[in-house]
Design a protein that fits this description.
The chain contains two helices and ten strands, in the order H-H-E-E-E-E-E-E-E-E-E-E. By secondary structure, the protein is an alpha+beta fold. Bound molecules: fe (ii) ion (FE2).
Amino acid sequence: MDLDALWKVFQELFQNKTISPEQWKQILSEYHGDDYKKYLQFDEEKYARNYVINTELFDVLILCWRPGQKTMLHGHPKDGCFVKILQWEITETLYNADKKPLRTSVMREWETMYNHDSIGYHILENASNRDTVSLHIYSPGNYKPCLL
Ligand SMILES: [Fe+2]
């Protein structure tokens, strides 16, 4: 499945709104292409957020991370956020509502994750010494990071 096919599936699914995080993981796991590479753009100052799709229903972004780049502590209200690692790895630290760290885990190439405020808030970081690329889907669209 290439990105165009993936977007078409998203479009239909977001209109029906009947899909669980487990089903999302399943769909994302079917993508193993390299056509995401046309969206690669790094920023030396901050992790780069490159829009691929921006709609009312959902946004798709390709994030490019130089070593050491990381997000602020933030949450994902409404339908949450789906992530698939396309290159290398991302470290996630999960926090509770009191901003206390709960756990840290590393997501590796081709792994998927789901985050929502009901699970916790998080910081994502490229804690490695190599460039990382990740795919992010936010619903509804026009997502603004919800900083704590
Ligand atoms: Fe996030």
